[in-house]
Design brief:
Elements lengths: L11 H6 L10 H5 L16 E6 L26 E3 L6 E3 L3 H5 L4 E7 L6 H10 L15 H9 L9 E3 L18 E2 L19 H16 L1 H6 L3 H19 L2 H6 L6 H7 L3 H15 L3 E5 L20 H25 L6 E6 L3 E2 L4 E4 L13 E4 L2 E2 L3 E7 L6 E3 L1 E2 L6 E3 L4 H12 L7 E3 L5 E3 L22
Parallel strand pairs: 1-7, 1-8, 4-14, 5-6, 5-7
Antiparallel strand pairs: 2-3, 4-13, 8-13, 9-12, 10-11, 15-16, 17-18
Length: 472
């Protein structure tokens, strides 16, 4: 097996000791300096990319991608299935925009894992480790952080992993904080939206940055005092990349969603989620490899996520409220990547950490809010359900207009083409060109750990014809 070693680390206090404290405007360099390896893609084209649309709390598969009209009233909700533009493929009536573009995505209805809580479910899906402990951060690095680490390129003017709403409970673990997501927390629908540290700088500031770089480079005596010459030389490159990001135009242009015309912005929906996905499309088109968009907050109704326990919300009112925004945004993104010729390079994945209990329960509301009745009112809910999760896949050059797998008539258990967390990860790694069978990193103790922590193979129905894995 090949083994990928950790990059050297130079902590902020060491930078200060080396006399770089005055270089505060380029503090980005202090973060970038430990990211020392670039991806080898083997071709001159932009590498494959992934947009992960995350539904935190877990979406009900019965009210989205796997309706169960024949189930009894104890299981089925109030909504009917509708036909799509693909004969035989039916979705919940709350997804009319999805129904228009069903020929451009595939639905997996048979994802199964064992993580019954949010942390466990997220960690299992994104790391492959069969986590059963409630950890706020993963014990092992997730797929996004690993790919970020493998593809890091000091010459880029754009971050290669951006969270336009970072995924809860994810992170790089022992890869180190240098491989955290570039987080964008603002609302792209607001006129005041901007991304800190990614804005154009005037000529005076640019010249000042150049002088600071020049001053540091003149301090050759510090190199003689350094314990590791290679670290000082590497720092030059990281400073240069920080300078490129701060003074270049690529990042500024990619994040400037105002460059989109009014019709396009309206097509995605003039709300936070719609503009998150429009920004995600802009980023991958500009060359960003990995983008997450977490759909949480006020547009969820209830308690700001998809966790539709009866104490939080009336599950049927809550999902009806949020799907009006999610349906439009996701359908627009799917259409857009095909219309703009991004469909072979970019894969879109829409999922949460698990599905919801098919059997409906009733509990007292904990408070009046969007989609929730006053305190003490009995209302319906669905709880956590990792035994059946539905996931949307689009792009990636895959065959589309299909349903993969099935659950029983009540939506309780997968009955056909059962897929595990390892298969899910292998599918994404395969698209991203990661050699998931032979790549490993050292953990905190220096022990090499493979990046695939569960057995799995790419889901063949979701692979492009004649595709073969390539390594980065």
């Amino acid at each position: 097996m090949s083994r990928t070693s950790q990059p050297p680390n130079l902590h902020r206090r060491e930078v200060l000791r080396f006399g770089l404290g005055g270089f505060s405007t380029l503090s980005l360099a202090g973060l970038l300096q430990s990211r020392s390896r670039a991806a080898e893609t083997g071709n001159d084209q932009k590498p494959t990319a992934l947009i992960l649309v995350w539904l935190p709390g877990g979406h009900s598969h019965l009210e989205t991608y796997d309706p169960k009209p024949l189930a009894s009233s104890a299981y089925r909700g109030p909504y009917e299935p509708i036909d799509t533009n693909v004969p035989g493929v039916r979705l919940c009536e709350l997804l009319p925009h999805h129904a228009r573009v069903a020929d451009r995505f595939s639905i997996l209805r048979s994802m199964v894992h064992t993580g019954f809580c949010h942390q466990q479910g997220t960690h299992q899906l994104l790391t492959g480790f069969p986590e059963r402990v409630l950890r706020q951060q993963p014990l092992y690095p997730d797929l996004l952080s690993i790919t970020h680490r493998l593809r890091y390129d000091v010459t880029r003017q754009l971050p290669n992993y951006v969270g336009v709403g970072p995924v809860n409970y994810s992170g790089p673990a022992y890869l180190g904080n240098a491989y955290e997501v570039f987080a964008v927390h603002g609302d792209p629908n607001q006129e005041s939206f901007s991304v800190p540290n990614v804005t154009s700088v005037d000529e005076a500031t640019s010249n000042n940055l150049r002088r600071r770089i020049g001053l540091r480079q003149q301090l050759d005596r510090l190199k003689a005092q350094a314990d590791h010459l290679d670290r000082m030389q590497a720092l030059d490159a990281f400073e240069q990349q920080a300078f490129n990001v701060l003074t270049g135009s690529e990042a500024t242009r990619a994040f400037d969603i105002r460059q989109e015309d009014a019709a396009t912005r309206e097509r995605y929906g003039r709300n936070r989620w719609g503009q998150q996905l429009l920004l995600a499309r802009r980023l991958v088109e500009a060359g960003v490899d990995l983008v997450t968009a977490q759909f949480s907050g006020d547009l969820c109704g209830g308690v700001g996520n998809w966790d539709d326990h009866a104490v939080n919300a009336n599950c049927f009112e809550a999902i009806k409220y949020r799907l009006q925004f999610m349906d439009r945004a996701v359908a627009a993104l799917v259409e857009d990547i095909y219309e703009r010729g991004l469909d072979r390079r970019v894969m879109v994945v829409v999922t949460g950490e698990f599905g919801r209990t098919p059997k409906i329960n009733h509990q007292k509301s904990t408070g009046k809010r969007i989609a929730s009745a006053p305190t003490g009112t009995m209302q319906p809910g669905r709880d956590h359900w990792p035994r059946a999760t539905s996931i949307l896949f689009a792009g990636g050059g895959m065959k589309t207009g299909q349903v993969v797998g099935a659950t029983d008539t009540r939506g309780e258990d997968a009955t056909e083409r059962i897929v595990g967390r390892g298969d899910f990860l292998a599918t994404l790694y395969h698209h991203l060109g990661v050699d998931y069978r032979n790549t490993m990193f050292d953990d905190y103790s220096g022990r090499p750990i493979p990046i695939m922590l569960s057995d799995g193979e790419p889901i063949p129905e979701l692979l492009r014809a004649g595709s073969t894995a390539r390594s980065v």
